[in-house]
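User: What would this chain look like folded?
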Amino acid sequence: MSFMEHIGELRLRLRNAAIVFLVVMCVSFVFVKKYFDVLTKPAQDAWRLALPGQPIVFHFLSPTEPFWVYTKLAMYAALLFSSPIIFWELWKFIAPGLYQKEKKMGLTVTLATAACFIGGALFGFFVLCTPALTYMLSFAEQIGGFRIEPTIMMNQVVGFMLGMLLGCGVAFELPVVLAVLGWIGLVTARSLWRFIERARRRKLEALERETGAELVPREPG
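Assistant: Here's the prediction, encoded as structure tokens.
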């Protein structure tokens, strides 16, 4: 294929991916309130645990805030649900230029990356978010003659949840990153072990210095 034919093929794949994304985003607007309810489920559970008996209320600061929150949720949902087709379109553009071994490696890395990210996001959603929010909401209490009450905005709770899911998903990508670095020869098991050992020794030396400084008697001033 000539250069211009490659450009035409790329435009075709990007156009198909964009059409799928826009269609799924339009459909997502129908279910966006359900998405908001599901995404904020850990916050709702935390509210019930930290503030029993109080109604769960999420506020919005400006008239346009709910619209933009729902739009953001629809975009993220569309990206999530259309990502298999988007990746498939990109793969059909990239795959013809790869050797069979590279194709297998690319598919393996892609599947492992998706699995680790989804696993990390689920871990954050089901394990971390509710305890973290319960602890933070527990600061709402009576102190002397006044009471501290939470006023949580829609944009804030959605931003917190998306940040937690994204952070946990990225953190769970570490095994894939190490595997790829090992495959291309930048990292070996021995070099990783040496790095861990050096870090452990540095921590032990720092602890010994701090302990020794505390135990050495000081001269009276």
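The mean pLDDT is 88. If you want, I can go into more detail on any region.
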